[in-house]
Structure formats: C-alpha cells, structure tokens
Write the structure tokens for this entry.
Amino acid sequence: MLNKTVAQLAAGLAKGEFSSVEITQQYLNQIKQLDSQLNSFISVTEDHALATAKAADNRRANNNAGLLTGIPIAHKDIFCTNGIKTTCGSKMLANFIAPYESTVSQKFQDAGCVMLGKTNMDEFAMGSSNETSYFGAVKNPWQLDCIPGGSSGGSAAAVASRLAPAATGTDTGGSIRQPAALCGLTGLKPTYGRVSRWGMIAFASSLDQAGPMTQTAEDAALLMNIMAGFDEKDSTCANEPVPDYTASLNDSIAGLKIGLPKEYFSKGLDSKIATNIEQAIKELEKLGATVKEISLANTDLALPAYYVIAPAECSSNLSRFDGVRFGHRCENPGDLEDLYKRSRAEGFGAEVKRRILVGTYALSAGYYDAYYIKAQKLRRLIKNDFVAAFNDVDIIASPTTPSPAFKLGEKSNDPVAMYLSDIYTISTNLAGLPAMSIPVGFAGGLPTGMQLIGNYFAEAKLLNIAHQYQQQTNWHQQLPTAIQA
Amino acid sequence: MKWEAVIGLEIHVQLATKSKIFSGASTAFGAEPNTQACAIDLGLPGILPVLNQEVVRMATMFGMAIHAQINQRNVFARKNYFYPDLPKGYQTSQMDLPIVGPGYVDITLDDGETRRIGVTRAHLEEDAGKSLHEDFHGMTGIDLNRAGTPLLEIVSDPDLRSAKEAVAYLKTIHSIIRYLGISDGNMAEGSMRCDANVSIRPQGSEKLGTRTEIKNVNSFRFIEKAINFEIERHIDVLESGGKIIQETRLYDSEKDETRSMRGKEEANDYRYFPCPDLLPVVLSVEFLNEVRNSLPELPEQKRQRFIDELGLSEYDAGVLSANRETAEYFEAVTKQCQDPKLAANWVMGELASRLNKNQLEISESPVSAKQLGEMLIRLKDETISSKGAKTVFEAMWNGEGSADEIIEKRNLKAITDTSAIEGMIDEVIANNTAQVEQYRSADEAKQGKMIGFFVGQVMKASRGAAEPGVVNKLLREKLKG
C-alpha cells in the first residue's frame, strides 16, 4: 500500500478498499520507523492526522468526499498552520505557532487531505542541500551520506522514501525541482502567482512559488487542482482561470516542439546526466515531438542577478525577526540595540546571515543602482530570452541539476559551489515561468532529473508531457533501497 | 544683514478610512493598546498586504484638488529600518513613483495678498505604531493600534518665506482635506502632523542655506512659534559667526524652543526598493473620471461662486469659504432666508463673535443654521427690528427655542405702525423739553450727534420693537418743530 501514488490511493479510498485512517496510520508508522535515518520531518502531527483522517472517512461515508478527501500529505514547514508549530527550519521560529492557516494548507484541509506533519527544509528556504536547517540535515534516501537537495529537502526525502505519498514544497531558485531531481521525484514550480503565497513564510517575495512534489505527473496534476487559483489575500496572485490539470494528461504530444538551450548543455554538466537527458528526449521524439536547438543567451547572468535580488528581498523580509513580538529573543537584553543584535545573531544561521548581509549591501545607498537596479535589468533580459524562445518552441527541456546529489558536507564551506547547483533552475524563477523536474535515469545509483520549462500558465502542458513520458518509462517508479532494508 | 527664510513643509495626513491601508483592522482612535492590530499589522511571518482601494481614491481626490499630476502608475516601496514600533522592519511607502505628482495651492495671507505654493508630491504610506514609556518602569511598551493606518504625506516646495505663510499654507491644506472629507485633520489626535524644513539666506541670494528639520508639530500655533524660533536661532548662529548643522530638531511647546534630536549624519540608510508583495497601482482613465466627477466644490471654487452668484465681497467670500463647516452653515442660512448678504453679516458678525468668545467651533454652535435662517426671515419681513433680532439671537443662543417662539413669548413684534411710533415720539418730546430746546438751537453737525439720545428714548419706550431707522426719520421731522 505504501508504494501507491495519490491517484491509486484516491481510487482505493473511493472503492472502499481501505480507509483514510488505515492509510494514515500506515504512513505514521513508516515515519516512526524510518525517519530517524532521514530526518525529513520537523513535526509529525499524529493526533491531528488521525483526527482529520477520521473526519475524512466520515465525509466519505456521507457521500461528501472530494477526490482527494482522506489522502495524507506532508507540508513543507514554511507553510503556516493554525495552532501547529511552523519553524521554517530556523531557531528563530523554533517555537512559533501561527494563529492562521496558509492558503495552500487551507485548500488541502478544505479538500479533506490529511496532514501527516511538517517537513524539514533549509533555514528560511535558503540552501540547496538542506544542511542549513536548524533541525539538522536531511539524508538522501538513495544514499544516506548524500544530500537530498534543498530547500524542500524534507519533502523530497519523505516522498521518495514513501513516508508520505506526496508533499508540498516551495521554489525560489529551484527548491522544488532540484531536490525532486536528486531524490527521483516529480516536482513542479508553477507560474509565479499561480499559487497563493499567503501564509507561506517569505524568502524572496518576487521569486517564491509553492508547488507539488509527487511520485508522478498525474499526482502533481491532482495536487495542482487543489493548490492553484486566485487568492484575494495575495496581491501578486494571478486572477486567471484554473484548468482541470488532469484533463489534458493523456493528450497526444505529437508535433510538440522541444527547444534545447545550448547554454544548458555546456561546461560543468555531468556526462551521465547529459546522456540521460538525451535518452529522455528520444522517448519524447518517439511520441512525435521534434527537437530544436535554441539559445538563451543571457543564461550566464541568471546566477549573479538572482544572488542580488533574492538576498535583497530576503534582507527586508527577514527584518521582522527582531525579537520584539515573536520568535527567538535573546536573554536579558541590555538595551534595544543589544536585543536586535543578539536575537538575530543567535536566531539565524550562517547562510541566512550571509544573504541578509549581501542583500543589505546591495540595497544600500551608493550600491543600489550598481547592484539591485542592474540585477533587475538582467532579469528583464533573461525573461526576454524566454519570451523569444517560446515564439519558436512549445517547451524547453534541460537538465535540472549539473550533477547528481553530492555528499553531505561536501560544499558546506563553499557557498558559490553550492549556489551553482541551482544554475539551471534559477532563470525560470527570475522570469516567473513554470518548470518541472521529472526523473529520467540514474548516475552512480543516484537519480537524475530533466527539467521542462513552459510558457506562462502552461502547467497543464508540462504535466501532459511529463505524464506521456512516464507512461513510457519507469524511472519514477524506482524505490530507494538505502532505507528500505 | 537682511535675512530671508526658506521653508518647506511635510504634512502627514491620516486618511479617514474605516480600515487600515493594507489590512482589515479598524482605524478608530483611542482603543485599548493592541486591540486594533491584526496579524498583518503585527508583521507576523507569511502574511501579505492588500491595498485598501479607498486610500487610493482619497489620495487621487487630493491630487485633483491641488491641480496636481496624478501618476496613473504608482509604486509602493519599502523603507527599511529597525524600530520596535515598526513591526515588519520596513515601512511600506512610495518613493520614486508617488500617486500625486507636482501641483500647487494658492494661499491668502492676512493682508489679502495671494501666493501660489508648489506641492512637490504627495505619497501614500502606512503609519508605524507607538512606543509607550509611562507605566513600564525601565522598559518600553509597544502599541500597534496605529500601525498600518493610512497616511498621505504632502511635501511642499521650499516656497514659504515666513512662519505666517507656513501657517496659511497648512490651513489651506487643512481646509482642502476637510472639504474633500478624506481626513478629519484633527491635529490634537495626530490626524494631521507637520514637519518643517527651515533655512535662511541673505535677502536676494539664490543659494539655499543649510536647513534643519523640525519634527512632528501638532498645532497651527506651535508651528508658527517653532518656525519663528528656528529662524531666529539660525540668524543668531550665523550672525555670531557660527554654522548651521543639518539636523532634526524637536519643538518643546512648554519652553517654546527647538532642540536637537539627532544629526543627519547618523541618519538611517533606508534602502528603499519596490515592495515585491504589492503590484504597481495602475489607475484607469475611467477611475480618474469617476473620481473627478465625485469631487465636492472646493474652497477656491466656493469662494468664487460666493462672489459671482451671491454677490459677496472678496473678503466675506474668503472668510466664509475658508472652512467647510462655516461655508455649509452660511449656505444653509442663505438658503433659508434667501439673502446672502444678510446671512453673511450675521454669520461673520454676531455668530462668529459669540462662538469666539465661548471658544466654540461652528459645528458646536447652540444656534443652528436653520434657527438663524428663520430669524433672518422675520427680520427681512420686518416682523422684528434689527435690535429685536439681537434679542432673539441671544435667546436662541440660550436655548429658548425658535425665533417665532421667542418673538411670541417675549412680545418682540416690531412696531411698524408709524402712528404708534409717532405717539411715542410725541411723548418723548413732551418729557424732554430742555433737550429739545438744546437740539433746536444747535447747528446741523451737533444735531447729528444729539439725535442719538432721542432715538434711544423712543426705542426704550417701544421696548426695542420699533425700527431705529423709522424712528430716526420721524424724529428728525418732529424735532424741526
């Protein structure tokens, strides 16, 4: 039962093959048994989960159930949950309990989904390895001495090792796609504004976007049907109609034009990853797609632009963590300045501090034009590249990451090397485009991913292609062996 | 040396919305601390702002009222600094693209001279909370009720040349926002606060001197005193060979002096950047037209109409249009009695002096516009004399009822029957033979002065019910003998 997809669980629940309480209990048992090896959960909400599962079963008995009523899922610990701890992976919020529910988690609640717990993550979503979490690193279920990717590493490890059938994640520069690729999952970062950010603790507001992390594209479509949509509480949320993302999964992709950006296949790319992508593209060609080399000329500007804009916004977004109203406050502050300095020095980890400092510098008088304004201009150039590319092709395919999961600790002391692991994912956040990662093979026993980038609001198209690919392959069905023993 | 002051004002106006600029929390004044601050106002993690549309409408109205350019695309920015009463660590404000661009207002000085004062810009922003130091021994309490209250910051050009001009400008802005109904402008409650930038330069010089900023002055009287103090201080410093330091100063109304708050060199680097949680505000032409059509008549237009349509003098029209309540009162009286000049005389005369004496606002007047209008009808149709009217007014002031009730009760009907008045005149002449003799032997100029005595006697005899003009006229004839 534990290896079932969300779609299979939903079918089983509908047929009465099992109850929500039964499957919820099984996942909770699995978490108890295995998570000590993975550290993928910060909070396991057992009582809450069982109560919700019971309520879901009642709804089903009263013919008041939706498709996903009773389905267990895990939420990244960045989504505020009413009355339940939300830490954002930080000491600063180690004991923070929000008096409100994020729109995303509320929508799952309304659908009758069961929250198993809150998953581990890089502190304030800043990191690519999950090693910056105050609650400790998460292990990659495929090789426990490797990182699972970040920042949604807890969600990725949990779903990959079937501690949850699906999970939510957030993606500011690749935080859904990179861990999905490194753990062998399907991960979708929707168009900026497609999913509400309300109640999701902000890292870089203009880049953050929530999305699903699942075993299959079909599951991602099911989750998107719940998550997507306008929210009047988020001014940046798009007021666009939401399609049924499952409706077009089985559409033919014959005639699909795939663009391969040459800049994404150059130096630094692991050769096995390149081979895996080639194979995957061949599968798509068999389904009738055609391939064209394209150029995204400003790709090399994405990383520097991102590492100005994201820290600039984070330096401002994280100012509220000052020890005055909530969160960590230092002991016996001498005066106000001491309160600020020590609370923040004690509450934030090294990576968060590094980015706050970079962002503060980039926005400061005399440097604003040289860094922030310049970065915004680069952002526009990067966006223009994509807009032009989509005049020629329907979809863009690329590697998700330059290499498979690296060893824990390997890049901890080299921030730039760490930042490079998001080199293929960052551009789409700057452009606000939807993109997803699907498993397309292995390298040295570790999963690797292919990234599909779509035009604005083309999530359904992305899911369609991924689903068609997954009908022909079984990479997404492979189970990590490291923890199953 | 002759010095010239150069003054610019930054006026913070609290907009009269029911809810805050980015949240649904109430803006009512005077609630228990922290009872009107929701998760958004507290800056809790994960919360997002949503712009209150009413705030945009109000700012647009103001912009149109001061003949300003309205920026159809305007942008909210974050002004970053740490302060315990600033919950998010930044204030959401407007920087590069404010909603209201350059405009102007015309101010009228006491001598009747009119000056045009440029308004650089007006932008929207959220207020911060308040630090409370009393009742917290050695600690500070924070009240965030005010956090997120919508403010319109109106920045003038450095066009003001004296404290008096600054006050006239401030009063003009106050009048406009009250007319528009976008703020109650209550300075005591902090709904309108003012910072003044003051510098001086040798008269005739084009170059600006070093300026100092006086923060948060909250009355018309204090702003005048604070600016005057500051001008004098600048002159003293410069004339004794010193230098003005650019700094922020506080005005102490008890000591009537300003003192240094902090030097500008220690000032924060606010690290402004566009707020990524709010999209640029884009105003449609339809919206602008709708707002333009909804604008009430403004003081300047009203003044002109009072002159053109009601035939008032420039002076009267200016006084009566200066504030919305006075203008509305005057118009209501006029509507009732159909005599603008008569209404103007009473509103600016008897009513104003009584209000002044009792330190009442016109909105607190014990005599309503309706009551005054009804009385003036009786004055016009000669039911009462002008003297009788004063008696009626006083009785109304004391709450004795309507004009008609008082006229009836006190028997104040004017004596218009000339034969009755003639009878009284005859009696007065008969009782004052010596004075009559004197009058008749005096020359014309002297007679003019002496007639008052007889008029007084007749008025007394009529218990004020005779019309003095009629009495005067008849007396002069009878006294000729």
